[in-house]
Design brief:
The protein has one domain: Chorismate synthase AroC (Chorismate synthase, AroC fold, 4-Layer Sandwich), CATH 3.60.150. It is built from 14 helices and 17 strands. The strands form six sheets. Strands 1-2-7-4 form a four-stranded antiparallel beta sheet. The radius of gyration is 23 Å and the shape is globular. Bound molecules: ligand EPS. The site of ligand EPS has 18 residues, from helix 6.
């Protein structure tokens, strides 16, 4: 079993993460993690914070001479903005009198729910930990999971599909699902296009339409959400199980992806569009190709009966619009109960491109969970032996059983 926890307030000293249960001897460097952190910070439509931060992870434990020890891995990401918040976010001493007590909740953020649940006297206490700043720590954790999966030929990537309902002209998502031969090389090609785009989309014309939409939203003080697509190739058949609700591959994936701030929906494979097709047009027909089992399509998105099929995992993630609006919605001042404009504070207009990077991290984590559960082992070598003995024999065993 692997697990992780993160800690840290948005404007506190730092974010930290502890990862437990990873095998020993996995090559791991801060550079690998930092590349992912940099990707999360990019994206047209982000606010002023990303100009302040330059996220970098320090590995505090669990790694020696660039290889994991099998001991807890701890990571630290310093908040540069802490310098401006030291007094307001001090962990010791008494609260200074001149510090604002935030009392007007923003609809859509964890302001009213958090302050009510934790009996706070300042909405700032809710804002800090509920901020999507925490996803920096998750991307660092996800990078460690990505590193493990890479050892087994699993590649994870993705792109922005839409922002503010501006979709590409062609339904790329369905096209990917129609292609049972979608593989790492094809994923790389998509990643390259996305990484060259300011909003992580696949074409310049789509990028232009989205940037226009973001500029319009920003000008009118509004915010936008959108959808992103995450894909994992090279995932072997056999992760997860149908025997229990909590052992399904879909459960692990959904739990991790739905935990991302502002994510409101997921589609596995064709998802909601599957309901519009008859069974004869949806299910992925089984064929024999080059002596191996294969499928005609991947509409299921890489799982059947809670077990990975060996085809790519393909998921669409829906992110709601950012909750902080410069043209605020109505709210109440908790001090006076007067109707008043919701609080404004520095924020992003759009964070869908960043959400895609976080979604990759969480998909990587979910797959690492399933992988470690299936192939176990205290060292990477042991895990590789277990993996090989399963993967190389599946088809041979089946043939023998049904002779
Ligand atoms: C974020 C840091 C935050 C926001 C954003 C995500 O920085 P600050 O609050 O200091 O401006 O930019 O958080 C939200 C949009 C939110 O609603 O919580 C980050 O590091 O991703």
């Amino acid at each position: 079993m692997i697990r992780f926890l993160t800690a840290g307030e948005s404007h506190g000293k730092a974010l930290t993460a502890i990862i437990e249960g990873f095998p020993s001897n996995l090559p791991l460097s801060p550079e690998f993690i930092n590349k992912e952190l940099k990707r999360r910070q990019a994206g047209y439509g982000r606010g002023g914070r990303m100009k302040i931060e330059s996220d970098e992870a320090e590995i505090l434990s669990g790694v020696r001479f660039s290889k994991t020890l099998g001991t807890p891995i701890s990571l630290l990401i310093r908040n540069r903005d802490w310098e401006n918040w030291q007094t307001k976010m001090a962990s010791d001493g008494k609260r200074p009198k001149n510090i604002e007590r935030v009392s007007v909740p923003r609809p859509g953020h964890a302001d009213l729910t958090g302050v009510s649940k934790y009996n706070y006297d300042d909405i700032r206490n809710s804002i800090e930990r509920s901020s999507a700043r925490e996803t920096a720590a998750r991307v660092a954790v996800g990078a460690v999971a990505k590193r493990l999966l890479e050892e087994f030929g699993i590649k994870i990537g993705g792109f922005t599909e839409s922002v503010g309902n501006v979709f590409p002209k062609e339904n790329i998502y369905e096209k990917i699902l129609s292609d049972a031969d979608f593989n790492e090389a094809k994923l790389y090609e998509l990643i390259e296009r996305a990484e060259n785009s300011a909003v992580r989309v696949l074409s310049k014309s789509h990028e232009k339409r989205i940037i226009n939409k973001i500029d319009m939203a920003k000008k009118s003080g509004d915010s936008l959400g959108g959808t992103c697509v995450v894909i994992a190739t090279g995932v072997p058949l056999g992760l997860g199980s149908f025997v229990h609700y909590d052992r399904r591959a879909n459960t692990a994936i959904a739990k991790n992806l739905l935990s991302i701030n502002a994510v409101k929906g997921l589609e596995f494979g064709l998802g909601f569009d599957a309901t519009k097709k008859p069974g004869s047009e949806f299910h992925d027909e089984i064929i024999l190709r080059d002596g191996k089992f294969h499928r005609k399509t991947n509409f299921a998105g890489g799982t059947e009966g809670g077990i990975t099929t060996g085809l790519p995992i393909v998921i669409r993630v829906a992110m709601k619009p950012i909750a902080t609006l410069m043209k605020p919605l109505k709210s109440l001042d908790l001090k006076t109960l007067e109707e008043i404009d919701a609080r404004r504070e520095r924020s992003d207009t759009v964070a869908v491109p960043a959400c895609g990077v976080v979604a990759e991290a969480m998909l990587a984590w979910a797959l690492a969970e399933l992988f470690v559960e299936k192939f176990g082992g205290d060292s990477l070598e042991e895990m590789k032996d277990n993996y090989k003995s399963f993967a190389s024999k599946i088809e041979k065993r089946l043939r023998k059983n049904f002779k």
